[in-house]
Each structure stands twice: as C-alpha cells, then as structure tokens.
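User:
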Amino acid sequence: MKSESTSLFADYSSADAINEKIRIVHKSVTLFSMIGMMDSANQAKTYENNLASNSDVGRKEFEESLLIAINFLK
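Assistant: Predicted structure:
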C-alpha cells in the first residue's frame, strides 16, 4: 500500500521554495503569538531559523501546531 504524504509543504529545495517556506513560517510565529500559543511560536521561530540554514528540522512540530491554530480559529 502506498503511503500518502500529509505535509503542508511540498518537498522542494529551490531557493524560491525555501524563501516561501520561511515567509509562511514567519507569519505563523505572529499568528501563534496572537492566539496565545507561545510554545508553538518559539518552535516556529526555531524552525524558521533552521530553514534559513537549509535544515528541515522541526517541520513536523510546526505543521502540527499550525493545524491546531487553524482549528482554533474555525
């Protein structure tokens, strides 16, 4: 059985794609802070820094936090 990816981001490594990921994550830091998800904001900031260093460490935690925030805002 083929496993489907559940990632919010495509697995592109071009400079434009990485810059777009950084932009989205940066805006998410503000969102998390506004709704009181301070731990998530800190994790997202760390992930943003990792992306700038060409590392994808923290992606899963970021995506989980983003889904929680989206559900909270519904």
